[in-house]
Amino acid sequence: MPKYNLFFHSKQLPETFEEGEKDLAALKAWSKSFEKFVVNPGSVLKQSLIVTSENVETVTPGETLSAYAEIEARNKDEAVKIAKSWPILDSGFVLISEVVDMELD
């Protein structure tokens, strides 16, 4: 089955610890409901940096990826269905990329 990376982008970060805990509980329940598809549950991402040959910039919170996961799905449509069920989709979006395994030997 093809693998897909789901990159979660939240435009709005939780304003309080309690809101963060509520979002985290919703994400854990979401992950559990799709566990047969999950290859790597991924991680929540903190501060991001943009690195170029000339500069390093800190990305403003809310303008960067907030989490990622890797799933297996029969096809792109099934991956989209899974992504559309992301519990905090109303405050962001999900970028889906099919994974192409590479051998670097």
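That was protein one. Protein two is written in the same sequence-then-structure order:
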Amino acid sequence: MLVRDRWHPPEIKSADEARHSMTGHVTQAAGARVLPTDPSLAVEPKPEGPKRAQPANPF
């Protein structure tokens, strides 16, 4: 979970840490839940369809 505000640098917390911090208390008070994200696949599947064209100007 990424917790950010405009005055402090981003703070990355696991779902367990977030549940037991102010973030977890606020989400519980709002009726929401803090859940861990699904792990990404080690090898992403190739997209279906034709390949994308290279842009004319990459800059």
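The chain has a mean pLDDT of 77. Keep this in mind for the problem set.
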